[in-house]
Design brief:
By secondary structure, this protein is of the alpha/beta class. It has 2 domains: 4-99, Elongation Factor Tu (Ef-tu), domain 3 (Beta Barrel), CATH 2.40.30; 103-217, Rossmann fold (3-Layer(aba) Sandwich). It has helices at 32-37, 79-85, 125-134, 174-186, 199-211, 251-254, and strands spanning 8-19, 24-30, 43-47, 58-61, 64-66, 69-75, 92-99, 112-118, 138-145, 159-163, 170-171, 191-196, 216-219, 235-239, 246-250, 257-259. Strands 4-3-7-1-2-6-5 form a 7-stranded antiparallel β-sheet. It has a 7-stranded mixed β-sheet with strand order 11-10-9-8-12-13-16, sandwiched between helices. Strands 14-15 form a two-stranded antiparallel ribbon. Strand 8 (112-118), helix 3 (125-134) and strand 9 form a beta-alpha-beta unit. The protein starts with 7 loop residues before the first strand and ends in a 6-residue tail after the last strand. It binds flavin-adenine dinucleotide and FE2/S2 (inorganic) cluster. Flavin-adenine dinucleotide binds at residues 43, 54, 58-61, 72-75, 77-81, 120, 123, 221-224, 256.
């Protein structure tokens, strides 16, 4: 959990928007307070409209930080995200962040990072790739979607694609692709997996990593309210870090990044 003093609530103005297909947009805003303290895996909680609808803030991973500018990648799935994806340059947002914990990028246990993501789970991977490069690590992305339209590679390097319908790249899931090409991707060096995506993908990936004794961090999602540990709306049950049994965490504070070995689903 981060020190509360680094979290700020900011009135920001959208400085750029870019559509990446029909339902995904990149949205940038100038926010020195969040840019200075953001770490890969952190998220922001956004009040999208000053009106009552939607009443609660919505959580988004930090996609990129460039100087004082913070960027998010949003997929339109409901009222808040549709409103956000349709917001023009100049629109105002209230943005709380940076929130949550972060991926561990500078550990000596690995030389090459395999960034495995599915669908909108690719959102945190750009900031993560940059941080890993700064830490001197090699990065390889394995990105999946149901079809080619679900795959996002904006700003990423060294990407390998898997689609379930075979419309782009390898036909199958990201875990099928990883199983097929693991020694090629890892270059037979010490590897660590960083992941974000739908729960079935994370579950299959956690099993693959366990079978292959690979460390794996996973960024999870839950419905969130406050984003700062007050409402208890984001509880997730995980295996205990040591010993047997389970424990419940607040994903907004003790996550969203967890050791994949702890996943129960
Ligand atoms: C830590 C975290 C980081 C996230 N990062 C991103 C990101 O970078 N980009 C992005 O597009 N989305 C991200 N999400 C998911 C995003 O917050 C939800 O899609 C959003 O809150 C939905 O709001 P809405 O008003 O559009 O949907 P609503 O109208 O509230 O709901 C529409 C549908 O979406 C479902 N839904 C609502 N919240 C979530 C959720 N958190 N996860 C999955 N389904 C949900 C609802 O059950 C419902 O079926 C993240 C979620 C979390 C917890
Ligand atoms: S979202 Fe309120 S406690 Fe986590």
């Amino acid at each position: 959990m981060r020190a509360d003093s680094t979290i700020t609530d900011n009135a920001v103005t959208i400085t750029s928007t870019r559509s990446l297909g029909t339902d995904v947009s990149l949205i940038a805003f100038h926010c020195p307070g969040i840019a200075e303290h953001a770490r890969p895996g952190n998220f922001v909680n956004i009040k999208i409209s000053p009106q009552n609808q939607p009443l609660l803030r919505r959580p988004f991973s930090i996609h990129n930080v460039e100087g004082d500018t913070v960027e998010i990648m949003a997929k339109s799935v409901g009222c808040g995200t549709t409103m956000l994806c349709g917001s023009p340059v100049g629109a105002e947002l209230q943005v709380l962040g940076p929130l949550g914990n972060s991926f561990t990028v500078d550990s000596p246990e690995f030389e090459i990072a395999l960034l495995v993501s599915g669908g909108i789970g690719t959102a945190p991977m750009r900031f993560l790739e940059k941080s890993l490069h700064t830490a001197g690590k090699k990065v390889c992305h394995v990105i999946g979607g149901k079809t080619g339209r679900d795959v996002q590679t904006a700003g990423l390097t060294n990407c390998f694609i898997a689609t379930e319908d075979g419309s782009e790249g390898f036909e199958g899931t990201v875990v099928d692709l990883l199983r097929d090409k693991f020694s090629y991707f890892s270059e037979s060096r010490s590897a660590k997996v960083f992941s974000c995506g739908p729960n079935p993908m994370l579950k299959a990936l956690a099993e693959f990593c366990k079978e292959n004794s690979l460390p794996c961090e996973a960024s999870l999602e839950s419905i969130m309210g406050c984003g700062i540990g007050i409402c208890y709306g984001c509880t997730v049950e995980l295996k205990k870090i040591s010993g047997s049994g389970t424990t419940t965490i607040l994903l907004c504070q003790d996550g969203p990044v967890v050791d994949a070995e702890r996943l129960l689903f």
